[in-house]
Structures are given as structure tokens and as C-alpha cells.
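for the recovery benchmark. C-alpha cells below, seq after
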């Protein structure tokens, strides 16, 4: 059903839950924050009280030093957050610990997705489709051109390139939280059992994933490894390191970039990437529209992304919708 939703406010710095005096993924420190996942455009330190899944809190402790005021939310277990509002964290399928947040108040059900995807990911639980009255969805890849291929196809491209270039290393640029670990897990699933080498910036998060029960196999630091020993190896690094001085220590690296934006040729050229891998931790166009249809809300609010096309899709399908104007939400997929 369509409702009034007067207790939910979309403000430039985030989603405000008025009766509870709380915010979801606020862009600056607040007294009471509910955090969907650990990426820096959604999670930050300085809150008086931070409610998140145990995995997200662990990630925030490593990345931002968050410890005081941390409150653990378990998937599917409602939490009273004040003002007659309950919050239930549900799997979002984005990265380890990521959650949609179901808010219930005044006989209305509101879901704030945070970031999410629908494609399988061995490093985190899958997105939980949950009916609601108001669905507040991301739209990072909210254009029909963005249709992500199966990740197995992209991993096969990576392994084929490595086999065709035995004297080079394959250097894969990937975001340090979520994307890197997913690629490693998918490489293992594809049968790659050799050591995977890491840039120093990737090590702490990979160790944390392993501590939290995500198997990643034999990982090694690039530091101190002779250049000749890395011929034929797969190396994971931050996107910013693909073409900087650090990469010169590697044996003629074949540069790859894992991002949903690798669908756009101009982005590939800008990055100077030889092997674009269309791998994203965000829903593509079909996943966005399918999810809205399955959740079947009375109203949809669209945020931090390509809002206009998804808004138009809703209008064409007789679905009430509006675009929000939130700030501070960047695209960690790049």
C-alpha cells in the first residue's frame, strides 16, 4: 500500500528516522546511526551509537577505529531503536556484513537498501527479497546499458589472459573491501589454487575476511618477492596503484580493472586498462527493476545513482516513485 511516511525524511546528509532521532548512513557524525555496510561513503566514525551487523562493526573497527557505542544487529532480528520504531537488518548481498534495513512504524514498512546486488557472491549472504510499503533503493547502475555478465565469464577472461602471457603478471585493480575478496573467492572456485599476491593496502581486509570465516586460500604480500618470481602470478591492488610507481616492480604487468564501469569504453581508456573486467558489487539495470517488481512497494524512492532512468521505468509501470537528492555517496565500484 502507499502510505504517508511522514516519519522518514530524506535529507542531504542521509535518511532520517524522525521518531527515533536516528539516521541511516549519515554523511557526518550523529548521535544515533544505523549503518548498512562498511564502505566509506556509508560508514564513518564519530557517532555516539552505531548499529550494524557484527561483520560491519568489525570492518569499521579496522578501517575507522569505531569501537565505543557499537551495537550489534543480527540478520532478521528486530531491534527497538526508539520512538516506537523497530529496525530489522536483512542481507543485501553487497559485501560481507552488508544489510538492508527494514523499518516498521505506524503500520508502515520501509526498507532502505544501502548498496546491494542480486548476483551470487561466495563471500556474503544473498539479498533477501522482503515486501514493504516504501522501498528506498540505490541506483548506481540505473541505466539500461548496464547489464553485468556472469562473474564466471569475467574470471575466465582473467585466467585466459594469464595463460596467454606466462612471462607477465596479471595486475587486477579492485576495491579493497568486498571486490578484492570476491575476485579471490571466485578465482578459487574456478580452480586457481596457486598463491595470489596482494598490494599492502589489501592485506588487512583480506585477513579480516578470513578471520570472519571467508576462505580465500593462500595469499601473499608482494613486498619482498623477487620480480622474476611474479611472472605468471595474479596480483590484486587498489585501482589507484595500477599505473603508479609501485607497479613498476612487477614483471611487465598486464593491467586489469574489475568494475561495473568497465562496460563504458571511455572509462577503460581513462584507466589505461588492457583487460576490462565487468565485475560489480552493485545491482545492474535488470536487477534493480526485477527487485522493485518482486518487493512490490506502494512507493519507491531512488537515491545515489542514475536516478532519472529508473524513475521513468517506475512511471511507465504505473509505480509511484520519486528521486532523492542525497550527497556524499560516491561509487566505490570505481
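predicted aa per position
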Amino acid at each position: 500500500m502507499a502510505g504517508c511516511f511522514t516519519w522518514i525524511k530524506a535529507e542531504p546528509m542521509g535518511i532520517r528516522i524522525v521518531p527515533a532521532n536516528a539516521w541511516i548512513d549519515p554523511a557526518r557524525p550523529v548521535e544515533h546511526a544505523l549503518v548498512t555496510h562498511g564502505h566509506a561513503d556509508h560508514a564513518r566514525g564519530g557517532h555516539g551509537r552505531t548499529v550494524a551487523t557484527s561483520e560491519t562493526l568489525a570492518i569499521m573497527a579496522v578501517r575507522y577505529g569505531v569501537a565505543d557505542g557499537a551495537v550489534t544487529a543480527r540478520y532478521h532480528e528486530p531491534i527497538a531503536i526508539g520512538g516506537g520504531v523497530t529496525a530489522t537488518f536483512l542481507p543485501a548481498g553487497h559485501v560481507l556484513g552488508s544489510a538492508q534495513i527494514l523499518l516498521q512504524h505506524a503500520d508502515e514498512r520501509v526498507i532502505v537498501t544501502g548498496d546491494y546486488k542480486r548476483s551470487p557472491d561466495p563471500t556474503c549472504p544473498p539479498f533477501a527479497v522482503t515486501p514493504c510499503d516504501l522501498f528506498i533503493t540505490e541506483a548506481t547502475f540505473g541505466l539500461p546499458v548496464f547489464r553485468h555478465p556472469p562473474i564466471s565469464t569475467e574470471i575466465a577472461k582473467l585466467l585466459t589472459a594469464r595463460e596467454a602471457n606466462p612471462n607477465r603478471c596479471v595486475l587486477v585493480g579492485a576495491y579493497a573491501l568486498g571486490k578484492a575478496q570476491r575476485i579471490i573467492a571466485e578465482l578459487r572456485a574456478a580452480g586457481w589454487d596457486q598463491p595470489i599476491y596482494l598490494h599492502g593496502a589489501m592485506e588487512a581486509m583480506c585477513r579480516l575476511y578470513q578471520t570472519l570465516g571467508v576462505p580465500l586460500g593462500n595469499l601473499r604480500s608482494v613486498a619482498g618477492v623477487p620480480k622474476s618470481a611474479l611472472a605468471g602470478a595474479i596480483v590484486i591492488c587498489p585501482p589507484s596503484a595500477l599505473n603508479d610507481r609501485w607497479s613498476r616492480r612487477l614483471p611487465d604487468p598486464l593491467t586489469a580493472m574489475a568494475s561495473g564501469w568497465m562496460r563504458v569504453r571511455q572509462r577503460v581508456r581513462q584507466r589505461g586498462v588492457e583487460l576490462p573486467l565487468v565485475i560489480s558489487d552493485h545491482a545492474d539495470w535488470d536487477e534493480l527493476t526485477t527487485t522493485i517488481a518482486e518487493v512490490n512497494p506502494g512507493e519507491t524512492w531512488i537515491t545515489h545513482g542514475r536516478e532519472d532512468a529508473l524513475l521513468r521505468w517506475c512511471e511507465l509501470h504505473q509505480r509511484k516513485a520519486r528521486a532523492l537528492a542525497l550527497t556524499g555517496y560516491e561509487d566505490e565500484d570505481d
